[in-house]
Automatic annotation (TrEMBL):
Protein's UniProt name: Dolichol-phosphate mannosyltransferase
GO molecular function: glycosyltransferase activity
Keyword Transmembrane helix: yes
Naturally occurring in which organism (per UniProt): Bradyrhizobium lablabi
Residue intervals of the Glycosyltransferase 2-like domain: 5-168
Top-level taxon: Bacteria
Main location: membrane
Lineage: Bacteria, Pseudomonadati, Pseudomonadota, Alphaproteobacteria, Hyphomicrobiales
Amino acid sequence: MKTLTILIPALNEEASLPQLRQRLERAFEQIADAVRPEYIILDNRSEDGTPKLAEQFCADNPAWKYVRYSRNFGYHNSLACGFDIATGDALIVVAGDLQEPPELIPQMVGLWQQGFDVVYGVLDQRNDDTPFKTVGAKIFYPLINAISASPLPPNATDFRLISRRVIDVVRNMREPDRYLRGLIHWTGFNQTSFVYNRDPRAHGKSTAGVWYSTKWAANAIISFSNLPLRIASYFGLMAMCLSAAATIYFVVVKFYPPSWMPVPPTGTTAIIVLLLFAIGLNAFFLGIIGEYVGRIYHQGKQRPLYVIDRTINIDCTR
């Protein structure tokens, strides 16, 4: 019988985990003749009762496993660990906040059994999102699809099933600045989608604010396109052309002033404004270049994507 791994990224999900466990185990009862479960809680250094609950789950049922990191390594690196230790023939990422309905797992398994390697969820509506996230999504997906070689389906989420051969490909991608959703779509293979509605967050508040969302979008664009670097080159070329045209203009006005040509402004105000604009533009594009160079620097250090503090029911020697 095949094994299906459920990865549960968790950060202070004490209030949600008991209900999530019940719903997951009920979902697997419907497909008990097809797959057996492996549940892995990926604890990004929770400060509430999440570790104690995880210990209880693991003691009650050996199918439940637990990983606690030495610190919070972030959502994407947390999932990288899950990909490394998952033993299943496929895996599904289920958020620990109860926003992804586990009742859809049998449907996802059915599509997997039809031969699809990636089965990803697409939001029907974004009712639970803030206006910033709603508008941001409408801008982000057309932009990333216009500049990236591997387009992303609009409103696709991380709630997805991934087959073993996709898992193995993604495991070999050890880049520290990860955009997992893009990496999975980049692999290709047979992919399909299903539409669902995300449930409201059952407990607490999301820590993904405006800054996190902006950083996430910038990471996706930089990870899958060098267009920002090209834009810097285009602006540089345009500035050179404008500078050459301005030079010709000032020379003509100075030595051969036609009556119909306006006289350029005198004094230092115009020069200061243009100079400050040029300096600001250079600093902006230098920052873009620095972002790419910084990623090369981080990659070159080859530090591990995560450090494990302790585990339960997991053999870390393999």
